[in-house]
Design goal:
Number of strands: 12
Length: 587
């Protein structure tokens, strides 16, 4: 392995090879060759080695004349030698060699072998055709008429790509964009990667005219250059450029004709050498006139294209201004219209303008609830959704005459607290029907239970910071308290809230406390008489028996009644209702 590696390096550097090294590289040897000719004295197209002529097909067996190896043969021999030195494929390793590897080593070995094979395949492919060599870009042929810019681009991967010839119209924009790629040379790609194939190691540099327009490209220290014809709507200039070099100029007498196009501000200067015959002079003049005519056509076409482009841009700006003005007027953000005009004039797109306006203080104030939603980890609403929710809130408030709550502050609070339109409607119904228009006794009970004044009741119900379930339960508790009070019973806020939580309605409370009012007086009287020997019966027991169907409470009352009957021999002062149980436990 070491001998082959040394031989390969010597062959690539042009050093003489020994017979043994030639054999390693696959070069046949029958006799000892004399001292090789130094590489520096050989022509560029060949490498000379003292190799017997019979290697190249001669019948002589001992000739001392040096054979000539072409560059292609040397490349093929280099690749062949490199393949011989390449890693042994994993499938050809012995079982013992495979067993000695860890899984990570096997993976690394397979990867290295694959990459080396790909590199060698790429070298061999590049040697077979210059168009497959991604390390060197070919020079693009110039367009004979000067109408196009020809350039090469590498398309594909290491072992599948190739140089493809493209062309673009010869305009000033395309000269700046593609002109540098017309020049060939060594690329920035590496032997095992085509990345960088379209960029040269020695980057071409632009050559500009007095107006700063790129008219050609050149490589420092190289005499290659692009020759371009650039056009614009007002002037036409034909320029041929070369690298700055020392030149000798011979001047001949010439005649100069200046023609001016009456419709376009373009001056074309043509020169015709003197001393020519009339026929040749006429031919040159005819060709120059044709060039001037074509230049005029190109200028007219370019001018029309520029005018159309300007018109399209004007229409785009007008449409953007109209659309954004209409949109932000709907947002009630007319104060941003001057900013919109400024951005449109500066060429910003509609989407870019919308994003920039969203960062203004006016926009953030208009959609201020979004800032609060962010703090609560709620999704930010887009303007359309935001305004749609505002409209639904305002419609519901106005439908019930609650105009005092139809304000930006209230509406933004609903949005910030993620109150749905349906929930707001339920709150409004509760506020209007069960509070604002309710029995004064209920509003009084709300004030007694929760210390909420008459003027604050509706606002309390609509307050988005209050949980609606809590508000509903409190209103329901007040209704239950009123039902009890109408029977002369003080239910208390704790019991009323407990019954409300159980789902007892106002109607059920009225029926239940009516029953309690019937049974409680006698039950309490009997408790006072027999309370020392039997369990007593009070309001709490009555509420448990009536609303919760508590059997133990019912048994207490029955025992007291039975003791009364027994004490008086089947007669007592209780009425029929107090002795029955069918009227309780049905709520």
């Amino acid at each position: 392995m070491a001998d082959a590696s040394v031989a390969l390096r010597k062959l690539q550097s042009g050093q003489p090879l020994t017979d043994a090294e030639k054999k390693v590289l696959g070069i046949s040897v029958t006799v000892v060759a004399p001292t090789p000719t130094p590489l520096s004295s050989v022509a560029n197209d060949f490498m000379e080695e003292a190799i017997p002529l019979n290697v190249r097909g001669s019948t002589g067996g001992t000739s001392t004349e040096a054979s000539k190896i072409t560059q292609a043969e040397m490349t093929a021999a280099s690749i062949a030698a490199a393949r011989e030195l390449a890693m042994t494929p994993y499938t050809e390793l012995s079982a013992a060699e495979r067993a000695a590897m860890s899984q990570a080593e096997k993976t690394a070995y397979l990867k290295a072998a694959r990459e080396e094979k790909e590199r060698l395949d790429a070298e061999e492919r590049a040697a077979s055709n210059p168009m497959f060599d991604f390390t060197n870009r070919p020079d693009a042929p110039s367009d004979p008429d000067g109408n196009f810019i020809n350039y090469y681009s590498w398309v594909g991967g290491v072992n599948s790509g190739e140089w493809r010839l493209y062309r673009a119209p010869n305009t000033s924009e395309n000269v700046a964009k593609y002109g540098s790629r017309s020049i060939g040379g060594e690329t920035q790609a590496t032997p095992d990667s085509a990345v960088g194939a379209n960029a040269l190691i020695k980057q071409p540099r632009p050559l500009k005219d007095s107006n700063g327009n790129i008219i050609s490209w050149f490589v420092e220290g190289d005499d290659r250059t692009t020759t371009t014809t650039t056009t614009n709507p007002t002037t036409t200039t034909t320029t041929t450029t070369t690298n700055p070099t020392t030149t000798t100029t011979t001047t001949k007498p010439t005649t100069t004709t200046v023609t001016t196009n009456p419709t376009v501000s373009t001056t074309t200067t043509t020169t015709v050498p003197t001393g020519l015959d009339a026929q040749t002079t006429a031919l040159i003049q005819s060709l120059q006139n044709q060039i001037a005519s074509l230049t005029k056509q190109v200028t007219s076409t370019t001018t029309a294209a520029a005018e159309q482009k300007a018109l399209d841009e004007k229409i785009r700006k007008e449409n953007a201004l109209a659309s954004l003005t209409s949109t932000f007027t709907k947002y009630n953000l007319q104060s941003l219209i001057p900013k919109i005009k400024e951005l449109v004039i500066n060429g910003a797109t509609e989407s870019t303008i919308a994003l920039e306006l969203a960062e203004t203080p006016e926009y953030k104030q208009r959609f201020k609830a979004n800032q609060e939603r962010l703090k609560k980890n709620l999704a930010v609403l887009d303007p359309g959704t935001y305004i749609g929710m505002e409209d639904s809130y305002r419609q519901a408030l106005r439908a019930y005459g609650l105009k005092q709550f139809d304000t930006d502050d209230y509406v933004s609070q609903f949005i910030a607290n993620d109150i749905s339109a349906n929930e707001l409607s339920n709150r409004i119904v509760t506020a209007v029907q069960r509070v604002q228009n309710a029995d004064p006794a209920i509003t009084k009970q709300l004030r007694d239970f929760y210390n909420i004044g008459q003027n604050d009741l509706v606002a309390y119900v609509l307050d988005p910071n209050q949980q609606f379930q809590k508000i509903e339960r409190q209103v329901q508790a007040a209704e239950i308290g009123v039902a009890a009070a109408r029977q002369g019973i003080n239910a208390g806020v704790q019991v009323a809230e407990q019954l409300a939580a159980q789902g007892v309605t106002q109607a059920q409370a009225q029926k239940g406390y009516s029953t309690i009012a019937d049974i409680l007086p006698d039950a309490k009287r009997l408790s006072d008489i027999y309370g020392t020997t039997l369990e007593g019966y009070d309001l709490g027991q009555a509420e448990q028996e009536v609303f919760n169907q508590l059997a133990s409470a019912q048994r207490r009352r029955q025992k007291l009644t039975q003791r009364e009957i027994a004490a008086f021999g089947g007669s007592s002062g209780t009425n029929k209702t107090s002795l029955t149980t069918s009227s309780v436990g049905q709520i």
